[in-house]
Design goal:
Helices cover about 40% and strands about 15% of the residues. The chain is an alpha/beta fold. The strands form 2 sheets. Strands 3-2-1-4-5-6-7 form a 7-stranded parallel beta sheet, sandwiched between helices.
């Protein structure tokens, strides 16, 4: 297929999780023979922090404005078999209207922020998608599964809402033999609605467990925040350093945004990356998490700091490694980038075969060897 993707960013992972998602998915699609053009608005904060300025697996089109986009790439969008507009694209509603009018193949919206999008749509403040566009997109590819898919179809008129969860690249994420620098770590961009949980499950634990070491990595944390002396702050970790960062933790913490918790079925890319590295995960709890990992065997739930402290003390190194190994087997069986590429192909095949909708269950039978 000829695929065109208008997304937030693929060249810079600074301050966003979109780039790593696009990179793993498009790399897998390219490996399966598809030709891809990624269109990215040339924003100064990404231009100053590009860790993949020239992706090898797709063509890159940087554009300076909406007019620049329309003038330079109309032909590519028109002849694409699949044209995708992603969430959080600058002037995304206008970009979407243009793709919907210009595209002659399948037009899809890829929502890497589905719960946030739906909350914004309900309040009439979404800047990258309008309610009127949902019935016009042939596919709504969602980071959130479960009941939200039915909601998108029945309440918003999407003709086909399908899960396309985040994923990981097995060639980049695997166990790395190294000593543990930290007992517990967390990686994520600052978010006001996540911070209370991070405080409860890591910062307050660090204050009580002075003999243990902790780390919090990610940009945009306010300078006014106070961190205990045994918590190391790292502003940004480039994707090529993620594996080493995870592997240096005895346990890693997963903290979920409030909108994602409310909707459920919204795994983060960090969740799959850490699992692929075989690092045992302590996670807050949300509906549908058990769909991705078996509690107690592949992941450890923690809602209070005391549960985090109990896990750090209770699990021996051998038991922790077994939890991490089981989680790694799980993601290799179902959540690699190649799985996502094949799932996307199956949705396209459902449309091209003349079916009224591509099957939601088409991916259930897919098996990709690790």
């Amino acid at each position: 297929m000829q695929i065109v993707v208008a997304g937030l960013s693929i060249t810079s992972s600074w301050g966003n999780g979109h780039a790593t998602t696009y990179r793993s998915l498009l790399r897998a699609l390219a490996a399966r023979g598809h030709r891809i053009l990624f269109l990215e608005r040339d924003m100064p904060w990404y231009a100053d922090n590009r860790d993949l300025p020239r992706p090898s697996f797709c063509s890159l089109g940087l554009y300076s404005s909406l007019d620049d986009l329309m003038q330079r790439y109309a032909a590519e969008v028109a002849r694409a078999d699949l044209a995708i507009v992603g969430s959080y694209v600058p002037e995304g509603i206008a970009v979407g209207d243009w793709v919907l009018a210009q595209g002659r193949g399948v037009r899809a919206f890829y929502d890497i922020d589905t719960p946030v999008t739906l909350a914004a749509l309900a309040e009439g403040r979404c800047e990258y998608l309008s309610r009127a566009q949902l019935p016009r997109y042939d596919l709504y590819l969602s980071f959130t599964g479960g009941p939200t898919l039915t909601h998108l179809e029945e309440e918003y008129g999407s003709p086909a809402a399908r899960p396309l969860y985040c994923s990981f690249d097995p060639s980049a994420y695997f166990p790395e033999k190294t000593s543990h620098h930290w007992d517990l770590g967390y990686m994520g961009t600052y978010s006001p609605d996540r911070q209370p949980t991070l405080d409860r499950l890591l910062v307050e634990v660090a204050k009580r467990q002075r003999d243990q070491r902790f780390v919090v990595a990610g940009p945009l944390y306010p300078e006014s925040l106070s961190w205990p002396e045994n918590v190391l702050r790292i502003d940004h970790i480039a994707p090529q350093q993620h594996r080493s960062f995870y592997s240096a933790q005895r346990f890693t913490l997963n903290v979920t945004r409030a909108d994602m918790i409310e909707r459920g079925y919204s795994p983060s890319v960090r969740l799959f990356e850490a699992a692929a590295c075989g690092v045992p995960i302590l996670s807050d709890v949300w509906p549908g998490l058990e769909h991705f990992f078996e509690p107690g065997r592949e992941i450890v739930f923690a809602e209070q700091g005391a549960e985090v402290e109990d896990a750090l003390q209770r699990y021996s190194p051998a038991e922790a490694r077994r939890i991490g190994a089981r989680a790694r087997r799980r993601v290799l069986q179902a959540h690699s980038a190649m799985h996502r590429a094949i799932e996307l192909e199956s949705y396209m095949e459902g449309l091209s075969s003349g079916a009224s909708k591509p099957s939601r269950n088409a991916s259930a039978a897919l098996r990709v060897a690790p």
